[in-house]
Amino acid sequence: MARILIVDEDRVAASIAQAIMLAAAEHVQTPFGIKPTVATTPAEVRGYLQQFNYELLVVDAMIAKDDDWALIKEVRGTHSKFSLPIIVTAPFESVTLSFAAINAGANLWLTKPFQPEQLSGIISIMCEGR
């Protein structure tokens, strides 16, 4: 089971992302599928990361940017880019913010909305070999 942690302060947006990931699961080539979990605060993220091993972290840009990318930097203090890939999502393109996210330790910037097929390909690549 590929565990994916979705981080978004907007529970409705996080639920939509979760539904898209579940739809994408039909296309993902992992032996046991995927299990997306939602966290809405950095404290929840810390708790989940202490309890479970995740294969992928999907973080909304606004929650990450608001604390100067501290959450991503904190995760990178304990997990490498290869042991826990991080995708930052946003409803807009921004060279400045995407550069800041990558510089903080994210693997990828993904603009919303995304299609299940697009997301399934990314999940397959990011979770490959786990």
Query: What's the main sheet like?
Result: 5 strands, parallel
What structural class results from the helix and strand content?
Answer: alpha/beta
Which CATH top level class fits? Alpha Beta
Indicate the overall shape. globular
* CATH homologous superfamily classification: Response regulator
> Termini separation (Å)?
9 Å
Helix count equals 6
**Helical coverage, percent range:** 40-55%
* Series of H and E elements: EHEHEHHEHEH
The low-pLDDT segments are none
Give me the CATH architecture, please.
3-Layer(aba) Sandwich
**Domain module tally:** 1
The number of E-state strands comes to 5
Please list the strands of the largest sheet in the order they lie side by side: 2-1-3-4-5
What is the strand content?
A: 15-25%
Keywords, separated by commas or semicolons:
single chain, 130 residues, alpha/beta, Rossmann fold, five-stranded parallel sheet, 47% helix, 20% strand
Q: What do these coordinates show?
A:
The chain is α/β, with parallel strands linked by helices and 130 residues long. It has a single domain (2-58, 93-127), classed as 3-Layer(aba) Sandwich (Rossmann fold). 47% of the residues lie in helices and 20% in strands. It has six helices and five strands. The chain has helices spanning 11-24, 42-51, 61-66, 70-78, 95-104, 116-127; strands at 2-7, 34-39, 56-60, 86-90, 108-111. Strands 2-1-3-4-5 form a five-stranded parallel sheet, sandwiched between helices. Helix 5 links the parallel strand 4 and strand 5 (108-111). Helix 1 packs across helix 6 (116-127). The chain is globular and about 35 Å long. The model has no long low-confidence stretch (mean pLDDT 86).
